[in-house]
Amino acid sequence: MAVEVRIPTILRNYTDGAKAVAAEGATLDELIANLESNHPGIKDRLVDKGALRRFVNVYLNDEDVRFLGGLGTPVSDGDTVTVLPAVAGGMA
Amino acid sequence: MLEISQELVDKMIEHARRDHPDEACGVIAGRDGVPERFVEMENAERSPTFYRFDSKEQLKVWREMDDRDEEPVVIYHSHTATEAYPSRTDVSYASEPNAHYVLVSTRDETRAELRSFRIVDGVITEEEVRIN
Protein backbone atom coordinates (compact mmCIF):
# COMPACT_ATOMS: atom_id res chain seq x y z
CA MET A 1 0.00 0.00 0.00
CA ALA A 2 1.12 3.55 -0.53
CA VAL A 3 -0.05 7.12 -0.18
CA GLU A 4 -2.48 8.48 -2.74
CA VAL A 5 -1.54 11.92 -4.02
CA ARG A 6 -4.29 13.94 -5.69
CA ILE A 7 -2.97 16.16 -8.44
CA PRO A 8 -4.64 19.44 -9.49
CA THR A 9 -5.44 20.15 -13.16
CA ILE A 10 -2.53 22.55 -13.57
CA LEU A 11 0.07 19.91 -12.55
CA ARG A 12 -1.35 16.98 -14.50
CA ASN A 13 1.09 17.59 -17.32
CA TYR A 14 3.65 15.98 -14.98
CA THR A 15 1.48 12.90 -14.37
CA ASP A 16 0.35 12.12 -17.93
CA GLY A 17 -3.04 13.55 -17.09
CA ALA A 18 -3.59 11.35 -14.02
CA LYS A 19 -5.79 12.90 -11.31
CA ALA A 20 -4.15 10.80 -8.61
CA VAL A 21 -0.86 8.93 -8.35
CA ALA A 22 0.70 6.70 -5.72
CA ALA A 23 3.86 7.66 -3.85
CA GLU A 24 5.88 6.41 -0.91
CA GLY A 25 7.74 7.97 1.98
CA ALA A 26 7.67 8.34 5.75
CA THR A 27 7.37 12.13 5.63
CA LEU A 28 5.93 14.61 3.16
CA ASP A 29 9.47 15.52 2.14
CA GLU A 30 10.28 11.91 1.25
CA LEU A 31 6.95 11.52 -0.48
CA ILE A 32 7.68 14.52 -2.71
CA ALA A 33 11.17 13.15 -3.49
CA ASN A 34 9.56 9.86 -4.50
CA LEU A 35 6.99 11.74 -6.59
CA GLU A 36 9.81 13.63 -8.30
CA SER A 37 11.60 10.40 -9.28
CA ASN A 38 8.48 9.20 -11.11
CA HIS A 39 7.27 12.58 -12.35
CA PRO A 40 10.35 14.75 -12.91
CA GLY A 41 9.76 18.47 -12.55
CA ILE A 42 6.85 18.28 -10.14
CA LYS A 43 8.92 18.97 -7.01
CA ASP A 44 9.91 22.40 -8.22
CA ARG A 45 6.22 23.32 -8.45
CA LEU A 46 5.64 22.34 -4.83
CA VAL A 47 8.84 23.25 -3.01
CA ASP A 48 11.06 26.30 -3.13
CA LYS A 49 14.28 26.67 -1.11
CA GLY A 50 13.44 23.77 1.17
CA ALA A 51 9.91 24.89 2.08
CA LEU A 52 6.48 24.44 0.57
CA ARG A 53 5.66 27.14 -1.94
CA ARG A 54 3.49 29.80 -0.37
CA PHE A 55 0.69 29.56 -2.92
CA VAL A 56 0.39 25.81 -3.03
CA ASN A 57 -1.87 24.15 -0.49
CA VAL A 58 -0.95 20.61 0.52
CA TYR A 59 -3.32 18.64 2.70
CA LEU A 60 -2.77 15.41 4.60
CA ASN A 61 -6.22 13.84 4.61
CA ASP A 62 -8.32 16.85 5.78
CA GLU A 63 -5.62 19.05 7.28
CA ASP A 64 -3.47 21.73 5.69
CA VAL A 65 0.10 20.48 6.35
CA ARG A 66 1.10 24.04 7.29
CA PHE A 67 -0.76 23.41 10.53
CA LEU A 68 0.81 19.96 10.97
CA GLY A 69 4.55 19.96 10.37
CA GLY A 70 5.10 21.27 6.86
CA LEU A 71 7.50 19.11 4.86
CA GLY A 72 8.40 17.15 8.00
CA THR A 73 4.81 15.93 8.46
CA PRO A 74 4.78 12.13 8.89
CA VAL A 75 2.66 10.23 6.37
CA SER A 76 1.46 6.63 6.53
CA ASP A 77 0.20 4.01 4.12
CA GLY A 78 -3.42 4.66 3.32
CA ASP A 79 -3.20 8.43 3.79
CA THR A 80 -4.33 10.78 1.06
CA VAL A 81 -2.31 13.85 0.18
CA THR A 82 -4.15 16.50 -1.83
CA VAL A 83 -2.39 19.30 -3.69
CA LEU A 84 -4.42 22.41 -4.59
CA PRO A 85 -3.04 25.65 -5.92
CA ALA A 86 -4.19 28.47 -3.66
CA VAL A 87 -6.79 30.73 -5.23
CA ALA A 88 -5.50 34.20 -4.57
CA GLY A 89 -4.95 37.62 -6.06
CA GLY A 90 -5.88 41.21 -5.54
CA MET A 91 -5.30 44.68 -6.82
CA ALA A 92 -1.99 45.17 -5.03
CA MET B 1 -17.13 33.89 -24.21
CA LEU B 2 -18.83 33.49 -20.84
CA GLU B 3 -22.54 32.70 -20.93
CA ILE B 4 -24.12 33.23 -17.55
CA SER B 5 -27.53 33.89 -16.03
CA GLN B 6 -28.60 37.30 -14.74
CA GLU B 7 -29.24 35.69 -11.35
CA LEU B 8 -25.60 34.59 -10.99
CA VAL B 9 -24.32 37.97 -12.14
CA ASP B 10 -26.54 39.67 -9.54
CA LYS B 11 -25.23 37.33 -6.83
CA MET B 12 -21.59 38.18 -7.58
CA ILE B 13 -22.31 41.91 -7.55
CA GLU B 14 -24.36 41.65 -4.36
CA HIS B 15 -21.52 39.73 -2.63
CA ALA B 16 -18.93 42.26 -3.80
CA ARG B 17 -21.03 45.18 -2.50
CA ARG B 18 -21.68 43.47 0.83
CA ASP B 19 -17.98 42.85 1.53
CA HIS B 20 -16.84 46.25 0.28
CA PRO B 21 -14.31 47.74 1.19
CA ASP B 22 -12.72 44.29 1.51
CA GLU B 23 -12.31 42.17 -1.58
CA ALA B 24 -14.95 39.45 -2.01
CA CYS B 25 -14.27 36.13 -3.71
CA GLY B 26 -15.94 32.88 -4.69
CA VAL B 27 -16.53 30.28 -7.37
CA ILE B 28 -19.38 29.18 -9.57
CA ALA B 29 -19.29 25.44 -10.11
CA GLY B 30 -20.77 23.73 -13.12
CA ARG B 31 -20.39 21.08 -15.79
CA ASP B 32 -19.34 21.39 -19.42
CA GLY B 33 -18.37 24.99 -18.90
CA VAL B 34 -21.87 26.05 -17.80
CA PRO B 35 -21.82 28.04 -14.52
CA GLU B 36 -24.58 26.86 -12.18
CA ARG B 37 -23.85 26.51 -8.49
CA PHE B 38 -22.88 29.70 -6.66
CA VAL B 39 -20.36 29.24 -3.84
CA GLU B 40 -19.39 32.30 -1.84
CA MET B 41 -15.94 31.90 -0.30
CA GLU B 42 -14.36 33.46 2.72
CA ASN B 43 -11.55 35.90 1.96
CA ALA B 44 -9.01 34.56 4.47
CA GLU B 45 -7.03 37.80 4.07
CA ARG B 46 -10.01 40.10 4.84
CA SER B 47 -8.18 42.80 2.97
CA PRO B 48 -9.13 45.68 0.68
CA THR B 49 -6.19 44.85 -1.61
CA PHE B 50 -5.78 41.08 -1.51
CA TYR B 51 -7.82 37.90 -1.44
CA ARG B 52 -7.06 34.30 -0.78
CA PHE B 53 -9.50 31.42 -0.37
CA ASP B 54 -9.38 29.93 3.11
CA SER B 55 -7.36 26.74 2.56
CA LYS B 56 -9.66 24.47 4.53
CA GLU B 57 -12.80 25.82 2.93
CA GLN B 58 -11.18 25.46 -0.47
CA LEU B 59 -10.46 21.76 0.13
CA LYS B 60 -14.07 21.19 1.16
CA VAL B 61 -15.49 23.00 -1.85
CA TRP B 62 -13.04 21.40 -4.34
CA ARG B 63 -13.95 17.94 -2.97
CA GLU B 64 -17.65 18.69 -3.30
CA MET B 65 -17.07 19.68 -6.91
CA ASP B 66 -15.08 16.49 -7.50
CA ASP B 67 -17.85 14.36 -6.01
CA ARG B 68 -20.47 16.09 -8.15
CA ASP B 69 -18.34 15.91 -11.29
CA GLU B 70 -18.20 19.69 -11.41
CA GLU B 71 -15.38 22.10 -12.09
CA PRO B 72 -14.77 25.71 -11.08
CA VAL B 73 -16.28 27.31 -14.18
CA VAL B 74 -16.04 30.84 -12.78
CA ILE B 75 -13.60 32.18 -10.19
CA TYR B 76 -14.66 35.67 -9.19
CA HIS B 77 -13.31 38.39 -6.97
CA SER B 78 -13.77 42.09 -6.53
CA HIS B 79 -11.50 45.08 -6.80
CA THR B 80 -12.71 47.79 -4.49
CA ALA B 81 -10.77 50.83 -5.68
CA THR B 82 -9.54 49.94 -9.16
CA GLU B 83 -11.01 48.79 -12.46
CA ALA B 84 -12.31 45.27 -13.11
CA TYR B 85 -9.12 44.14 -14.83
CA PRO B 86 -6.67 41.46 -13.61
CA SER B 87 -3.74 42.89 -11.67
CA ARG B 88 -0.21 41.55 -11.87
CA THR B 89 -0.93 39.70 -8.61
CA ASP B 90 -4.04 38.11 -10.12
CA VAL B 91 -2.05 36.88 -13.10
CA SER B 92 0.80 35.47 -11.06
CA TYR B 93 -1.53 33.35 -8.92
CA ALA B 94 -4.02 32.30 -11.61
CA SER B 95 -3.95 28.53 -11.41
CA GLU B 96 -7.07 27.29 -13.16
CA PRO B 97 -6.45 27.50 -16.91
CA ASN B 98 -10.00 26.33 -17.69
CA ALA B 99 -11.76 28.89 -15.49
CA HIS B 100 -13.34 32.19 -16.43
CA TYR B 101 -11.83 34.79 -14.12
CA VAL B 102 -14.58 37.30 -13.40
CA LEU B 103 -13.75 40.65 -11.84
CA VAL B 104 -16.27 42.96 -10.25
CA SER B 105 -15.29 46.52 -9.42
CA THR B 106 -17.13 48.24 -6.61
CA ARG B 107 -15.22 51.52 -6.88
CA ASP B 108 -18.36 53.25 -8.24
CA GLU B 109 -21.29 53.01 -5.82
CA THR B 110 -23.91 53.45 -8.49
CA ARG B 111 -22.58 51.38 -11.36
CA ALA B 112 -21.17 47.86 -11.06
CA GLU B 113 -18.46 46.92 -13.50
CA LEU B 114 -18.17 43.19 -14.33
CA ARG B 115 -15.73 41.72 -16.83
CA SER B 116 -14.47 38.23 -17.63
CA PHE B 117 -11.01 36.98 -18.58
CA ARG B 118 -9.03 33.87 -19.35
CA ILE B 119 -5.64 33.78 -17.68
CA VAL B 120 -3.37 31.10 -19.14
CA ASP B 121 0.42 30.96 -18.74
CA GLY B 122 0.47 34.57 -17.60
CA VAL B 123 -1.48 35.86 -20.59
CA ILE B 124 -4.75 37.77 -20.04
CA THR B 125 -7.47 37.51 -22.67
CA GLU B 126 -10.68 39.43 -22.12
CA GLU B 127 -13.85 37.73 -23.32
CA GLU B 128 -17.42 38.72 -24.00
CA VAL B 129 -19.97 38.17 -21.22
CA ARG B 130 -23.38 37.11 -22.53
CA ILE B 131 -26.08 37.36 -19.88
CA ASN B 132 -29.17 35.24 -20.48
What this model shows, in words?
- The complex is a heterodimer of chains A (92) and B (132).
- Chain A contains two helices and eight strands; from the N terminus they run ββααββββββ.
- In chain A, 17% of the residues lie in helices and 29% in strands.
- Chain A is α+β, with helices and mostly antiparallel strands.
- Chain A has one domain: Beta-grasp domain (Ubiquitin-like (UB roll)).
- By secondary structure, chain B is an alpha/beta fold.
- Chain B has a single domain (2-131), classed as Cytidine Deaminase, domain 2, CATH 3.40.140.
- Chain B is built from three helices and nine strands, in the order E-H-E-E-E-H-E-H-E-E-E-E.
- Chain B has a six-stranded mixed beta sheet with strand order 3-2-5-6-7-8. Chain B has a two-stranded parallel ribbon with strand order 1-9.
- In chain B, helix 3 (88-93) links the parallel strand 5 (71-79) and strand 6.
- The radius of gyration of chain B is 14 Å and the shape is globular.
- The two termini of chain B are 13 Å apart.
- At the A-B interface, strand 7 and strand 8 of A face strand 4, helix 2, strand 5 and helix 3 of B.
- Chain B: It comes from Nonomuraea soli.
Quick overview:
Chain B: One of its GO terms (cellular component) is proteasome complex. Chain A contains 2 helices and 8 strands. By secondary structure, chain A is an alpha+beta fold.
Write the layout of secondary structure elements.
The complex is a heterodimer of chains A (92) and B (132).
Chain A lengths: L2 E4 L13 E4 L4 H11 L3 H5 E2 L2 E2 L3 E5 L2 E2 L15 E6 L2 E2 L3
Parallel strand pairs in A: 1-7
Antiparallel strand pairs in A: 1-2, 3-4, 5-6, 5-7
Chain B lengths: L1 E3 L1 H14 L5 E7 L2 E8 L9 E2 L2 H13 L3 E9 L8 H6 L6 E6 L7 E8 L2 E5 L1 E3 L1
The total beta strand count of chain B reads 9
| Major sheet details of chain A | 5 strands, mixed
- According to DSSP, the number of beta strands of chain A is 8
The CATH topology of chain A corresponds to Ubiquitin-like (UB roll)
What is the architecture of chain B at the second tier of CATH? Answer: 3-Layer(aba) Sandwich
Unreliably modeled segments of chain B? none
